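Review form for a predicted model. The reviewer records the input and the model, then writes brief findings.
Reviewer: anonymous (R2)
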Amino acid sequence: MNTSRVSTVRTARRNEGVPHLRRSARAGISSLIVAATLGLLTADTLAADARTYTQLNLFGDAYDRVRRAYVEQIPDEFLVRSAINGLLAALDPDSVFLTPQAYQDLLANKVRVYDGLGLEITMSEGVARVVAPIDGGPAAVAGLRTDDLIVDINGTPVFGMNLTETIQALQGAPGTTADLVIVRQGTDAFRRAVTREAVAEPKVAARARGNGGYIRIPYFTPGVLAQLTTAVTDLQKQLGANFEGVVLDLRNTPGGSQEAALQVADAFLTEGLMMSIQGRAEGDSKTFNATPGDILKGAPLVVLVDGGTAGAAEIVAGALKDRGRAITIGMTTFKRGSAQSLVQMGELGYVQLTTGYYVTPKGASIQTDGVVPGTVVEPARVILPEDRFPRRTEATLRGALDIPAGGPAGVQAEAAEVDYQLARAFDLLHALALVNQFAAN
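Model under review:
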């Protein structure tokens, strides 16, 4: 579940009458107030570890001290919410606290993850790390890349914000501008002004290339399976008996719905384990198995992955690789493979807590290992050598016919290939098709 990527109401807002509390609550109080977990601790748990009493007494003393002696009077509700936020922030970026309103917004899906800058982020060492920009969104047009670090938003340092606050700072009304300070490996920090937009829902794109099909999934939305099925059907009709298979491009696909990812993996698999979730508590471990039916009917499948392939996209790549259904090519994926559960905390709100890790069919943890492609191909751009001494042909001789520069009518010059990974993927797809044809004959 990728609900932590959805923009929600800021849960640790500065109280109108408390001008200095935000930073101090996060840095001090919120890291100490462990008593927010009291509702989850049983008597047996407390008895099993006497040190727990000492720690809770420490909290009680600190909490009482803050209420009585802090320079300004702080509402108890704000202190408790800040405590919960601090407790969760110490765990991982995906564990967050949702107010009742934020939870309702989440259910209603009022704010889509790709609106605003069209950017998926996570938190890393106190700053925002770009998972990947979404195809066609403002961030992609502005040139933001996977692993870029956003250290400042509109003059406010990101360090000290949690994930929810950072997402809210990045999002805003269409037409407004987010002034970002970016740190990128190998370069000096630079500024980039990005205008926010209402980004159209990312759609599956497909086209024929030679006798193979190219399919790009930019994000795993609820409707992705229907779009994928239509794309495959159209390619099969277009290429007919010459159809050699599909290259599925998941590069810079930052995630989306877990359910949608499993549907896509199931579309190519006929049986067996697709993924499991391994948790510590009873009921948090699950397995997901494929159902009969392969939309490619056994035709070759090559999956392109890179460092921006994350979350839901890693589920698909891991399943297809480990089940032997596809050959993966490219670079190791982002390594974002955790599952979250929602727990209601009385009237205060809900805790979204990481309760499990995604595991591929062969037992690899996506969070730890990512998906390592079977064929490692680094990105490169093919540059044709400069033709300093053109070869003389009949067309260069005196008196030759006047032929247009583009060649005879109806003939188009083939553009130089600039996507090296994609070129190698189609080479591999063609080779697989030839092997299958040879075996069939």
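Findings: The CA atoms of residues 30 and 79 lie 8 Å apart.
Further findings: The longest helix spans residues 420-440.
Recommendation: see findings above.
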